Amino acid sequence: MDFLRPASWEEALAAKAEYPTAVPIAGGTDIMVEINFDHRRPEYLLDLNRIELLREWEVGEEVTELGASVPYTQIMENLRGTLPGLALASHTVASPQIRNRGGVGGNLGCASPAGDSHPALLAAGCSVEVESVRGSRLVPIDEFYTGVKRNALAADELIKSVHIKNATGPQQYSKVGTRNAMVIAVCGFGLALHPDTRTVRTGIASAAPTPIRAKAAEEFLNAALEEGGFWENGKVITPSIAKQFAALASAACNPIDDVRGTAKYRRHAVGILARRQLVWTWEQYRGTTGRPLEGAA
Amino acid sequence: MANTRTTPSGTPTNVTQKHTRGGIGESTLRPDGTLKVTGEFAYSSDMWHEDMLWGQTLRSTVAHAEIVSIDVSEALAMPGVYSVLTYDDLPAEMKNYGLEIQDTPVLANGRVRHHGEPVALVAADHPETARRAAAKIKIDYRELPLVTDEASALAADAPLVHEGRDDHHAGHVPHPNIVHRQPIIRGNVEEARKRADVIVEGEYTFGMQDQAFLGPESGLAVPGEDGGVDLYVATQWLHSDLKQIAPVLGLPEEKVRMTLSGVGGAFGGREDISMQIHACLLALATNKPVKIVYNRFESFFGHVHRHPAKLHYEHGATKDGKLTHMKCRIVLDGGAYASASPAVVGNASSLSVGPYVLDDVDIEAIALYTNNPPCGAMRGFGAVQACFAYEAQMDKLAAKLGMDPVEFRQLNAMEMGTVMPTGQVVDSPAPVAELLRRVKARPLPPERQWESAGEGADVRALPGGLSNTTHGEGVVRGVGYAVGIKNVGFSEGFDDYSTARVRLEVINGEPVAMVHTAMAEVGQGGVTVHAQIARTELGVTQVTIHPADTQVGSAGSTSASRQTYMTGGAVKNTCEHVREALLEMGRRKNGSYHPAWAHAELLLEGGKVVTDGGEVLADIADILEDEAIDLELEFRHRPTVPFDLKTGQGDGHVQYTFAAHRAVVEVDTELGLVKVVELATAQDVGKALNMLSVVGQIQGGTTQGLGVAVMEEIIVDPKTAKVRNPSFTDYLIPTILDTPTIPVDVLELADPNAPYGLRGLGEAPTLSSTPAVLAAIRQATGLELNKTPIRPEALTGTL
């Protein structure tokens, strides 16, 4: 195995062009496990740790540009206000040691359906900036996941950053696991309210071959909120709306039975999480709770 | 944390020696504690030797198959590979090993019986080379039909897991796929059943738990110039390993010199051989030091697990709450090789009634041979599975009678003088009712603690924890109780002894005791306690603990809650003889100077010989001068007898130990997630030699019991008998966020038969913790829950 250590982004792109089978590695929290367990023997590893720009972020007027290697710890500590859903998701990733190493770029690169950041990214709405020696492009998150552990990257492309829409309303993220910390998702759900566009977006992890949005649930809720004038009048969401939203979120799942959980449970749990998050976010939007209900810091 | 220590009336603890600093009863700190928490401690996996090679095991990818052919040529041809070994290369006539039954091949002999069975070995100059070479060994398997449960094991046309059995259980088992069967019949169940006003039955399932020790199997074998081998290894019992290693190497035992290296936990999982023989074989074949370290994946195949079990129970009681009878059948899955299965059967059957008075019982326990992963020793050893079932039964009976579950248990609780179903009289304190009273009397933890922060919900206090799944929605509290009984020490007539060598000499003008045993320090704190005992018995402050090795006699296993009792007892015993020898020397040298030498009872304190009145007669250093007293002596507990093979009668156990738990849980009833809020426990330890260690053991055992209540299970595919979750990604053990507050209430009621009156304590908390958590979840959900660990699916109807 050859270990490529580019000193700059340009060198990294050149290396990826020259060795398209090279596997990029930053925090190594996923790749190293695969290598240690002998599940994967890449011909080349492309070490991105010397590339400073991947660890930077910039909060813009409407969009935050988040470097691919910004560790989850930094997201939790610095971006809780602008990217609350992603900050919550970051907090559920593994252990403090792993959160100090791992970042969103790795989650997107591996594109595992169980990745914790996917539902938050889907719900917030974002584009992934990928680049090669041929140039750079922005891939909308909705087009990014193309199959089980597959994404829209070409062989010579690297993930540079994620352009995430700054929150204009409450966001939530939850995952179900059979342990109270350091657990891989049995299923995960994210919800973001976008009062600026009067829409909601969702994200589901580990309940389909790829991370997905519950589009029918979103459309139903968008319509119900519009029809009832909820965005203006700030009324309490009716139980029947919450129930229907949950049912549609469940129905969006296409899960499997595996060692972590049954398909039936995953569908059931996604519905529960959808209903709860709708209440949490909506109550926060209405301002009745005064402060956001966040996970413990 | 509120830990209390109380000594209610009972037999007083008899301590001959007076107080010496750092002696017994003090919470002296572990000598390796700081090293371990700072990451400086050298574990067996950290060893290194000049020019050493790395060993790699190739394991079967199928559970049951004939090996049609093995081709090692490609592996051997790889640069850096020094040796590839298969069954045909084994040097001695003896090719099997085993704790009790030598049924386990060192390397598979034409057939594999379980997923992950060792088939070939590679030694190479780099671990990666060894791994790649092992992958190049070509094995042609022809798969055979599987035996995976009782039905398939005992079917008319069932394949025999072991053909031609000639072990000492073969003669009495009803089927060759049964390793051992132990019935216990006492009284008359049919008659007693007529007195019952209520009868409850239950079918319970206990999942396969893993010891999940954090330091994987590892060791270093160094070939000696005499043709022997020095083996440095993490194990639980050096001399038991030695007995199994030497014959398959074709070496006399004295040519296999073993030294304990840093052990990262054990919990029963290191009682069996793992890499020991393999490393020695490769070292002898290459004449180079060979190190083997399993990774986590391999570790799941490298040691036995806790027996999964199916337990069927019937209990009756009168309407005033007295138990009338109990009938049970316990089926343990021993997997492909015997390991400790026979002894686990003995424990499961003899402890199957729990700590209750029951005169009419009909008990049967069996362990099966199957093609599932081999199972053997794990903390609690057969008593854990039984406790899970009989405690569920107690709750069912109490509910049916409309009685409080604790009062019902207290009404039937055993005490000193109770006769066990084996006919053995419990002849030391058995404070079962008192332990229950204590956990029940504790104030309950406050409700809705997640709201205490004042702003938002503190998810750490909620089911789901950091995963942020509820802010209080769907959460229901439940409270449950359980109590258990465990035996201490090796039972059923086993000659269970420990050896301790103690040397007393003067170093730099000060008397120093050196304690040398073969006790495996696996985290239990023996190294701390041995020094305390030597200080107390010899009145010295300087104690050196010699590394554990086979240059001294056996210390027995670090298991069965026995080490403080047995090797601690051996250290005490040898120290007493050293003390006598010292006083004899003192009388010889100084006797004429003071009449007290001849008359008074003399003690050793603060480095001096003193009278019981406190008068100083001499410095220990002045008596010894340049002489050393060096004694090595064996220590035995009182003898036991085997259980009768038909009736189960016999004084089979050495000592009994008891713990009770009250579990308080919050259950997210919609998502089926559980947060254990508190696990209050009370345990009688006879005498706490080191309270800090005692509390640590109790909290650790309690947590391991919690693990198998709510998450820990090795999942074996019934269609293939293959392990589906051999990793810490999918085999979950509790994190600190899953570990509740564990207030510990320690009783010290001395057992007059035991050293210092102490009672083995490491396993009892693992028993009652699990059923207490289950009982609490049942109360919160109203569900029956007959299987542990419980899964979210079981709580939400989504299986």
Automatic annotation (TrEMBL), chain A:
PROSITE patterns: FAD_PCMH
Tagged with keyword ATP-binding: no
Its EC number(s): 1.17.1.5
Any one Pfam family match given in the protein's UniProt record, by short name: FAD_binding_5
Residues annotated as transmembrane: none
Alphabetic keyword roster: FAD, Flavoprotein, Oxidoreductase
An annotated Gene Ontology molecular function: nicotinate dehydrogenase activity
Principal EC category: oxidoreductase
Position of the signal peptide: none
Keyword Flavoprotein recorded: yes
SUPFAM superfamilies in alphabetical order: CO dehydrogenase flavoprotein C-terminal domain-like, FAD-binding/transporter-associated domain-like
Gene3D superfamilies: 3.30.465.10, CO dehydrogenase flavoprotein, C-terminal domain, Uridine Diphospho-n-acetylenolpyruvylglucosamine Reductase, domain 2
Protein's name in the database: Nicotinate dehydrogenase FAD-subunit
Gene: ndhF2
TrEMBL record, chain B:
Superkingdom per UniProt: Bacteria
Positions with biased composition (Polar residues): 1-17
Keyword Oxidoreductase found: yes
Coiled coil: none
InterPro entries per the UniProt record, alphabetical: Ald_Oxase/Xan_DH_a/b, Ald_Oxase/Xan_DH_a/b_sf, Ald_Oxase/xanthine_DH-like, AldOxase/xan_DH_MoCoBD1, AldOxase/xan_DH_MoCoBD2, AldOxase/xan_DH_Mopterin-bd_sf, Xanthine_dehydrogenase_dsu
Enzyme class per UniProt: oxidoreductase
Ranges for region Disordered: 1-31
Keywords, comma-separated and alphabetical: Oxidoreductase
SUPFAM superfamilies assigned to the protein according to its UniProt record, in alphabetical order: CO dehydrogenase molybdoprotein N-domain-like, Molybdenum cofactor-binding domain
NCBIfam families in the record: pucD
Protein name: Putative xanthine dehydrogenase subunit D
